[in-house]
């Protein structure tokens, strides 16, 4: 049987990072769409912002920009739809590449063919890289844009300004983006830790009552077996060796219970948790009578093995198990099934004592 732990529902990225990625893609889509429209208007010659006739190089740069911006927008749509996909990082890197090539091509041709100053636009590609890939991305974009400017415009009097402004833009934007990314990572880790604390038992690490209830709600309408476990002899261990030894024993029983439920061929999924004290609960969706019997046998075998508690102390405890079975379509909730399993467990425990 494959166990399902409380971490099963945790996504690869949390909602805050997903929202941030979508915001970045939306901003990219809007800005590039605006750039596409401006490029079309620029090429049309219908305004005073561009000469009536473009040079061959500028025409080629415009067509290149149109193609790259359209391609980047397609990547942005895919990234916006699946911000948690494993393809998001390469899609993001490709968008930075397309944007950088577009901006560099326009700047180089316009600086060479016209009198207006356009090299400050290089800072835009550096800022884009910083937003998407923090300091490393900003530095790589700075190197690429600066190298292109030096190689293609070696006689430009603005080379020193380009290098200086690019370097400052990369350092400031990259450092700020990196700091924000680290803060976001810290918040994500804190959120996951708080979520784990809210849904797991701190002593055994197993799902707690709230997580068990949530999982039972997911199984509504399906066949469900509920196993209530109570350790036999736990109170004597607590009374004899102290609560610290009792806590060690409970932790060990949690480990054994998880291992016992990890046997292939019993049921397809299941969840084991601790209710409190020495009581544990196991949920087996889709399990038939044979699978439940096999699971109970494995649990009994695992629990009754001697457990070492340190300082040469070794104890042996048993377990009483009550079972409640819900057929498909039955509306019985977890509380009702747990009460039924508790009654069955009580009968088994006291039947053993009477025997």
Describe this structure in words.
- The protein has 355 residues and is α+β, with helices and mostly antiparallel strands.
- The chain has 2 domains: 8-196, no CATH class; 209-354, Reverse transcriptase/Diguanylate cyclase domain (Alpha-Beta Plaits, 2-Layer Sandwich), CATH 3.30.70.
- The chain contains 10 helices and 6 strands; from the N terminus they run H-H-H-H-H-H-E-H-H-E-E-H-E-E-E-H.
- A hairpin with a 2-residue loop joins strand 4 and strand 5.
- The protein is elongated, with a radius of gyration of 32 Å.
- Residues 1-11 have low confidence and may be disordered.
Number of helices: 10
* Low-pLDDT regions: 1-11
Content-based structural category? alpha+beta
Radius of gyration: 32 Å
Largest sheet: 4 strands, antiparallel
The separation of the N and C termini measures 33 Å
Tell me the strand percentage band: 5-15%
Roughly what is the average pLDDT, rounded to an integer? Answer: 89
Q: Please provide the count of β strands.
A: 6
Query: What helical percentage do the residues reach?
Result: 55-70%
Spatial shape: elongated
Domain GGDEF: 222-355
InterPro entries: DGC-Regulatory_Protein, GGDEF_dom, Nucleotide_cyclase, Rev_trsase/Diguanyl_cyclase
Keywords: Membrane, Transmembrane, Transmembrane helix
Pfam families: GGDEF (PF00990)
Write the layout of secondary structure elements.
Elements: H1 15-44, H2 56-81, H3 88-113, H4 122-152, H5 159-199, H6 209-218, E1 224-232, H7 234-241, H8 243-260, E2 271-276, E3 279-285, H9 289-303, E4 307-310, E5 313-315, E6 318-326, H10 334-354
Antiparallel strand pairs: 1-3, 1-6, 2-3, 4-5
Helix pairs in contact: 1-2, 2-3, 3-4, 4-5, 7-8, 8-9
């Amino acid at each position: 049987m494959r166990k399902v732990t409380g971490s099963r529902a945790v996504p690869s990225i949390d909602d805050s990072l997903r929202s941030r990625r979508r915001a970045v893609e939306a901003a990219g889509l809007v800005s590039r769409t605006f750039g596409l429209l401006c490029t079309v208007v620029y090429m049309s010659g219908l305004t005073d912002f561009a000469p009536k006739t473009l040079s061959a190089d500028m025409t080629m740069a415009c067509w290149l920009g149109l193609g790259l911006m359209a391609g980047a927008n397609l990547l942005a749509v895919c990234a916006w739809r699946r911000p948690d996909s494993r393809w998001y990082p390469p899609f993001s890197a490709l968008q930075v590449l397309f944007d950088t090539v577009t901006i560099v091509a326009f700047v180089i041709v316009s600086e060479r063919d016209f009198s207006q100053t356009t090299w400050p636009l290089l800072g835009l590609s550096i800022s884009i890289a910083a937003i998407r890939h923090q300091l490393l991305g900003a530095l790589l974009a700075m190197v690429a844009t600066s190298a292109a400017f030096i190689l293609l415009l070696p006689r430009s009097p603005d080379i020193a300004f380009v290098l200086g402004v690019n370097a400052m833009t990369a350092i400031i934007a990259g450092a700020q983006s990196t700091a924000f990314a680290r803060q976001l990572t810290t918040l994500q880790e804190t959120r996951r830790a708080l979520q784990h604390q809210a849904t797991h038992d701190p002593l055994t690490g197993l799902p707690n009552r709230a997580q068990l209830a949530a999982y039972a709600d997911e199984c509504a309408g399906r066949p469900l077996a509920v196993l209530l476990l109570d350790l036999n002899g736990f109170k004597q261990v607590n009374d004899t060796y102290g609560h610290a030894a009792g806590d060690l024993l409970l932790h060990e029983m949690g480990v054994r219970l998880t291992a016992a439920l990890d046997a292939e061929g019993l049921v397809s999924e299941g969840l084991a948790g601790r209710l409190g004290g020495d009581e544990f609960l196991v949920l087996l969706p889709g399990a038939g009578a044979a699978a439940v019997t096999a699971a109970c046998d494995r649990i009994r075998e695992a629990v009754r093995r001697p457990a070492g508690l340190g300082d040469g102390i070794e104890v042996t405890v048993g377990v009483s198990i009550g079972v409640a079975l819900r057929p498909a379509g039955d509306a019985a909730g977890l509380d009702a099934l747990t009460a039924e399993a508790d009654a069955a467990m009580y009968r088994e425990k006291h039947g053993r004592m009477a025997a």
